[in-house]
Amino acid sequence: MVTEFESLYRRAEEASRLKDEFLTMVSHELRAPLNSIQGWTSLLRTGQLDPIEAARALETIEKAAHAQSRIINDLLDVSRIITGKFMLNLHPVMPAQALEAALEAVRPATDSKGISLVADLEREAGMIYADADRLQQIFWNLLANAVKFTPRGGYVKVELKRRGSQLEIRVGDSGQGITAEFLPFVFDRFRQQDGSITRPYSGLGLGLAIVRHFVEMHGGTVRAESEGDSKGATFVLTFPLIEGLTEGLIEAVAGENMLTPTEEYTAVYEAKDLLQRPSRRLQQVVNLATQPQEEVTPEPLAINR
Q1: Is the confidence at residue 266, as pLDDT, over 50?
Q2: Total count of domains within the chain
Q3: CATH at 141
Q4: Quick one: which of 56, 95, 244, 245 is 20 to 30 A from 66 by CA?
Q5: pLDDT tens digits for range 223-262
Q6: Nearest to residue 251, comparing CAs of 124, 162, 98?
Q7: pLDDT tens-digit map of 77-99
Q8: Does residue 282 share a domain with residue 173?
């Protein structure tokens, strides 16, 4: 009984310590860009900066504002996740497109650090039910993390493949790596491998916790792999595929008329945005015996759910 009480007490103390460290870190991370904004704003007000210096000031202010925005958005996301108020807007999505958008978003950072960005994407791997914005956020968080912890001259590699009924995405790097001691806690909130405010990397360490929650809300899984400190890291995500619905099918039926029975009502509206083209008409009828409102010769479309 005493041992159990001591264990609970130690865990409570550890949780309290982690939260105190986190609050200190939040204050530091918010103050740094704020100081930059205030400093450059004061210089701009003097009117003594030449055009090149003024442009630099505005660029620095913009970057600092974006940094603060990311921190605040991460805090809001975690708050909504903890309180169960986060909702996803799920539709059939081609993950390759979301991943390509995230790759383009981090490309300026890789270029500035001289990091090789390698992508091996199987576009015909299939489609998943996802919130497109949150899916891109998942990919961006992992890629931004990889770029942040990879030194100049290193590499970040991304793979998207079909594995049976699952879609697998791997984001690997040649960066700092994850120690064996920290690996079990890498997705925990309020934890970082280096939690000191003097660490060389900025950020609250919430990105991976958000990734895990978003992936699991999509019915997927995520795990981290690393051989240890300074040996790089790889994050592996899996999502269940929508069987029978691929980008190839979408292109193959372009321009065709399609007819669907009422029983497929939900599936039709889930796929409607994907199948919509100016030359295509998608009609729903009560059943196959009911005549459509205009004479068409539809092509059959089967959606396997």
Answers
A1: no
A2: 3
A3: 3.30.565.10
A4: 95
A5: 999 999 889 999 999 999 998 655 555 554 444 444 444 3
A6: 124
A7: 878 877 888 888 899 999 999 99
A8: no
The answer to whether residues 124 and 212 belong to one domain is yes
Residue 129 near residue 91 (C-beta atoms within 8 A): yes
Structure tokens at 58: 């505005």
Q: Tokens in use for 234?
A: 């790889």
Angle at 153 between CA 149 and CA 157, to 5 degrees: 65
Domain contains 248: no
pLDDT digits (tens, 9 = 90+) for 292-305: 444 545 555 554 44
Give a yes or no: residue 247 inside a domain.
no
Identify the DSSP state of 242.
Answer: B
* CA 280 to the chain's CA centroid: 32
Which one has a higher pLDDT value, 56 or 171?
Answer: 171
Structure tokens at 54: 């003024």
Question: Residues 116, 219: one domain?
Answer: yes
Q: Count of alpha carbons within 13 Å of 15, Cβ hemisphere only?
A: 6
Q: What is the CATH number of the domain that holds 72?
A: 1.10.287.130
* Higher pLDDT, residue 176 or 71: 176
Domain that holds residue 52: 2-82
Rounded Cα distance, 277 and 275, in Å: 6
Specify whether 35 is located in the same domain as 142: no
Per-residue model confidence as pLDDT tens digits over 21-59: 667 767 767 777 788 888 889 999 998 899 999 998 998
Which token pair is 209?
């916790």
Question: Does one domain contain both 226 and 264?
Answer: no
What is the separation of C-alpha 202 from the centre of its chain, rounded to a whole number of angstroms? Answer: 19
Do 118 and 226 lie in a common domain?
yes
CB 106 within 8 Å of CB 115: no
Q: Helix 95-113 to helix 132-148 angle, to the nearest 10 degrees?
A: 30
Specify the pLDDT at position 258.
45
Same domain, 95 and 149: yes
Of 240, 262, 290, the last residue of a domain is: 240
